[in-house]
Amino acid sequence: MNVEAILRAKGNAVATIPSGTTVAAAVRELKARGIGALVVSDDGRTPAGILSERDIVHAVAEHGAAVLTMTADRLMTRRVVTCRPEDTVSELMARMTERRFRHLPVVKDGVLCGIISIGDLVKSRIEEVEFEADSLRHFIAG
Ligand code: AMP
Asked: Which of 106, 111, 134, 135 is deepest in the core (most CB within 10 A)?
């Protein structure tokens, strides 16, 4: 299974915010969409950074409520690790485990075309394992 197959089922939508978005607005966006990270992008096509709930929690621990009026570009991680549609689920699981994050924006020809979360990878892996188990059961019962 690869990223392209996951996106075929999940769609290509990516929640982005402009770099000048306040943290208060970003938090509202995370809640409204039920997600854990936003790609920061001024044109909605090229990632300039990624802002996850963990960045916000860490900043609150450091600065308290003043964080709410800060802008996304102060808190975001600037060096965004991305993946490509042809990357496989096992490659991405290894990358996320090694780098200790749970989101990978998908980029094709320099343009954002989706996002993969750790939840998407776990779901895809479970489906694959269940399919294999079913096939084996049918083979044995055969
Ligand atoms: P997460 O586990 O995705 O909530 O993020 C944990 C930390 O890694 C936060 O500081 C994020 O900004 C950062 N992060 C998340 N995804 C990426 C990514 N694809 N590339 C670089 N940093 C990331």
From this structure: 106
